Amino acid sequence: MPRRFSIVDIAGKVGGKDKKPDRVLYARKGGEEAGGVSTNLGGEKISVEDACNLKTMCWGGPNIVPRPEWIKTGVNFNEPEQLYAFGLKAMKGATKAFQLVVQAYILKHLLFEGKSAKKAAKEREKKKMMNSKEKNEAFSSGQNKMSTLLRPNEMIQRDILSGAIAELLWRCGDKERAVIAVPEANPVFEPPVRFSIDGLTEKLHLFRCTKEAEVLSCMKKHIYFFMQEKAGGLACLLYSIVLSKGWTDLKSDMQDQGDLPLIDTEDKITLCLSNLMLTGSATPYLHNGIMSADDDDATNFEFGDGKVGITSRNEIGFLFWERDEETTQEMNLGSRLKTPVLPIWVTCINENWGVLFNPNRDLMKSYSAENRFQLFYFSNTETKAKKDTVLTIDTRGNKIGNQMNDMDDFDEVVEDPVEKAIQSKWEGAMVDWQGIPMYV
């Protein structure tokens, strides 16, 4: 099959005269090698100092070469118009966790921001005026439409990713600025002895934006690069996040962890990075506001004495479960992340990352709606089920009573960690996987 390229013309001027436009060629299809790139990409060439700072903030030092899954991987969707077409191919380690936070923004744009989302909202308004028979018919129709919505085509995938990344970078830049990092074909500086070349960082051009619309426009121009499978789009997105925040503000947000890298030596993302992406603030803490410790409370002292946590209710939520109740509670996850504005939660469950979501924007506005509802779950984990994972959540039942029914030994109950994470938000909730074997 012939390779297809998107041609982006960048016009420049030299000495007041029009300069012949350069061309940037990006492969459209996943799995293909990067196309040729102009040696005059535009933007601002990264300096040695900024390149060293980037590698230090992200990986721990300018002499470190990032793992191949960062510098040779793009932000790639699953096959368009198929099961999980809305989801990213997040495979393992820090890159999986990183992409699943991005996934939350993608879902926001797919469900609540795009043309399809607006059409779905009109359908919900229409449903409010129906009688019972019409509502039953609409429910069946709505399930089909939801299935279609979650199977976007290639064009929609590209559009929602552009919007998601643009919003993410704008938020990281305190809604005042954003920086988009894209490499050209050749290094833009002579690497010093302390700097280990990695084939990407030393080639970066930076595009600085000071208006939200400008960020989206620039992102659309370069989206094909980020979506290439082997072009380093993941590392460039991480770099763009860090550059948008800025060195001084980033270290200030990280408080007592300002000297630690955002990706640790065990290939895990830190809470500083996940919080930066979710909230715009790189705090290492999850509690509400500023926590003051009781002298007799060692837990509070360790995890939040005088430390700034989450300062306001967030649009996208976060749920956490780690092995047992005691370990989980030590993290002091506050209501500002548990109860977001939109029904989307990034989850970290026994160190496995995922996303829970509901297409009803008003779910968090109605207490009665939270009695019994459904949540889609996505972690790009391979399962035998050939359908979306839809969990039914019932907050009215008695969890232990249900589990003990027809069971002689309580110890035989298999603990569901996803259910435990959900119960940290909805106490006592029962979770029905609808025949799908539980997984994280």
Word description of this protein:
- The chain contains 15 helices and 13 strands.
- It has helices spanning 48-59, 68-71, 93-113, 115-127, 132-149, 154-172, 212-227, 233-245, 247-254, 271-279, 298-304, 325-329, 335-338, 399-404, 417-423; strands at 5-14, 17-27, 44-45, 178-183, 204-209, 290-291, 307-308, 317-321, 344-349, 352-357, 372-378, 389-394, 430-432.
- The longest helix is centred in the first third of the chain and has 21 residues, at 93-113.
- The chain is globular, with a radius of gyration of 23 Å.
- Residues 1-36, 137-141, 295-302 and 399-408 have low confidence and may be disordered.
Q: Key terms for this structure?
A:
6-stranded mixed β-sheet, 440 residues, alpha+beta, 13 strands, 37% helix
Largest beta-sheet characterization: 6 strands, mixed
Quickly give the structural class.
alpha+beta
Strand proportion, as a percent range, falls in 15-25%
Q: What's the total helix number?
A: 15
Question: How far is the N terminus from the C terminus?
Answer: 37 Å
What would the principal axes of the Cα set say about the shape?
globular
Structural Rg: 23 Å
Strand numbers in spatial order across the main sheet: 8-9-10-11-12-13
Number of strands: 13
Element order, helices and strands?
Answer: EEEHHHHHHEEHHHHEHEEHHEEEEHHE
SSE blueprint:
Blueprint: E1 5-14, E2 17-27, E3 44-45, H1 48-59, H2 68-71, H3 93-113, H4 115-127, H5 132-149, H6 154-172, E4 178-183, E5 204-209, H7 212-227, H8 233-245, H9 247-254, H10 271-279, E6 290-291, H11 298-304, E7 307-308, E8 317-321, H12 325-329, H13 335-338, E9 344-349, E10 352-357, E11 372-378, E12 389-394, H14 399-404, H15 417-423, E13 430-432
Parallel strand pairs: 8-9
Antiparallel strand pairs: 1-2, 3-5, 4-5, 6-7, 9-10, 10-11, 11-12, 12-13
Helix pairs in contact: 3-4, 3-6, 4-5, 6-7, 6-8, 6-10
